[in-house]
Amino acid sequence: MTAGRNSAVGEQAATKSKKAAKATKSSAKPESRLAMVRRARRINRELAEVYPYAHPELDFENPFQLLVATVLSAQTTDLRVNQTTPALFARFPTPEELAAANPEEVEELIRPTGFFRAKTKSITGLAAAIRDDFGGEVPGRLEDLVKLPGVGRKTAFVVLGNAFGVPGLTVDTHFQRLVRRWKWTEQEDPEKIEAEIAAIFPKSEWTMLSHRVIFHGRRICHARKPACGACPIAHLCPAYGEGETDPDKAKKLLKYEMGGMPGQRLKPPAGYPGRPAPPLGAAG
């Protein structure tokens, strides 16, 4: 991304954050269900412009690698998982080989991701189940995936949406935090959150909505100190003001450790089934 475009994105966010301050003060009436749905869909559209090629930030080349990487990502960062999985997959490239692996060797390989003993049990167990129950192929159905060791609905939807093209909502901690801040739901339980958000958006949007929300949560709308003054959707956010509203101070809170900046078209990871991203400035 050019410096000029970075500046333009920042200025646009600052302008919108000022509008948000005014909107927050004037919004005394309770929001109707219809108004909330319209606002939610507008947030999704605007996030699509800010993150036009949001994608899973785990590196993978096939469904098996994505499944294992997603299980390993619990309680750690995608960056740390991406630093760890190349050696793991080079040593154990198939479910059959991972299922037969010495647990101590697997533990040593995945130690940097934390909770390595429990994760070793999960990934060797799911590899054995894939070998024994699914002919060595990762199943493409939710009801089959959630039966695998260490695999819940969140992990299953990551795999379904990004390896099989089956729409699903990835209700991780970022997603939960943002949809509650945006007043799309008041639920705390992930499955209830999933159901309420699914009712707002068409099914075809579920996977990309998840990526956009998670991108935004990682880069701008942080848990402890959201960068409200640098947020491009501040004018649509009922929680505006929970974080830093000064544009210059807010810019310092932005995080781009995975390489994706607001407005930047990102190259998809290996194995991602979507179409290549068009060059910057090209028509969608």
Mind explaining what this structure looks like?
- [4Fe-4S] cluster binds at residues 221, 228, 231, 237.
- Residues 72-219 form the HhH-GPD domain.
- The protein is mainly alpha-helical and 284 residues long.
- It folds into two domains: 12-55 and 170-251, Helix-hairpin-Helix base-excision DNA repair enzymes (C-terminal) (Endonuclease Iii, domain 2); 63-163, Hypothetical protein, domain 2 (Endonuclease III, domain 1, Orthogonal Bundle).
- It is 52% helix and 0% strand.
- The protein has helices spanning 3-26, 33-50, 63-72, 78-91, 95-99, 103-110, 116-133, 142-145, 153-163, 173-181, 190-198, 206-219, 247-251.
- The longest helix is centred in the first third of the chain and has 24 residues, at 3-26.
- The chain is globular, with a radius of gyration of 20 Å.
